[in-house]
Amino acid sequence: MSEEKKSTAPTVDMKKLRQERNESITGAREKMKVQNKVIKALKEALSKEAKTIPELADIMGMQTDAVLMYVSTLKRYGIIGEGPKDGDYFKYELTE
Predict the structure, then answer these.
(1) What is the 3-state secondary structure (H, E, C) of 55-77?
(2) N or C terminus: which one in the chain shows less Cβ crowding within 10 Å?
(3) Sign for the pseudo-dihedral over CA of 24, 28, 33, 34
(4) What whole-number distance in Å separates Cα of residue 73 and Cα of residue 9?
(5) Residues 38, 79: contact at Cβ < 8 Å?
(6) Is the pTM of the predicted complex or chain greater than 0.70?
(7) Which tens digit of pLDDT belongs to each residue from 39-73?
(8) Vertex 47 angle, CA 31 and 43, to 5°
(9) What angle do CA 92, 94, 96 make, to 5 degrees?
(10) Domains, the chain, ranges and CATH?
(11) CA dihedral 29, 52, 72, 96 (to 10 degrees)
């Protein structure tokens, strides 16, 4: 194989790969944008006082199971902490 073909083959392969993966990459970017907006809204909702999952779901206009998933993830990474119980539900607050 000539030196010219060796140097251009990886570039051509990368271009082809990018074209093939463009749709999934675009979809992943859109999902990340939505997730970042939800996380920002959760932080904003918890910025003044601790709230329960149902309270957060009402504020954000989301299903409680989706809010619970986000809160659980943020709790795992130490961004949100579990506070005292309010009736049947724990209150969650920002730890940052």
Answers:
(1) HHHHHHCCCHHHHHHHHHHHHHC
(2) N
(3) positive
(4) 42
(5) no
(6) yes
(7) 999 999 999 999 999 999 999 999 999 999 999 99
(8) 10
(9) 155
(10) 3-94 (1.10.10.10)
(11) 80
